[in-house]
Amino acid sequence: MLLHLLLCRVTLGKSFLQYSAMKMAHAPPGHHSVMGKPSQGGLAYPEYVVYRGEQAYPEYLITYQIVRPQESSSLAGAPDSEPNASR
């Protein structure tokens, strides 16, 4: 299965600083984005939210696939890790 990731350049403009999770339909007056900062009892990770599509420029489309090794092939041909006592 192929997966896709869109890597964008984003302009934040004047950011409103927020420390708790809060649903906002738009940036507060006088601001262009919201910057969520992690805090004790608040957000766990930094977040950046823009509300206008014009603030983001899609620069790269990355297509990738996750390949998991098969257990049988990873063990086949592996050198014996224990020393041979008869030598």
Number of strands: 5
Radius of gyration in whole Å, from Cα?
Answer: 24 Å
Name the shape in a single word. flat
| Major sheet description | 3 strands, mixed
* pLDDT averaged residue by residue: 86
Task: Summarize the model shown.
The chain has 87 residues and is mostly beta strands.
Key features of this structure:
single chain, mainly beta, three-stranded mixed sheet, two-stranded antiparallel ribbon, 1 helix, 6% helix
Give a verbal description of the structure.
This protein is mainly beta and 87 residues long. The chain has one domain. The protein contains 1 helix and 5 strands. Strands 2-3-4 form a 3-stranded mixed sheet, with no helix packed on it. It has a two-stranded antiparallel ribbon with strand order 1-5. The N and C termini lie far apart (49 Å). The mean pLDDT is 86.
What is the element layout, followed by pairings?
Layout: E1 3-10, E2 15-18, E3 33-36, E4 47-50, E5 56-64, H1 71-75
Parallel strand pairs: 2-3
Antiparallel strand pairs: 1-5, 3-4
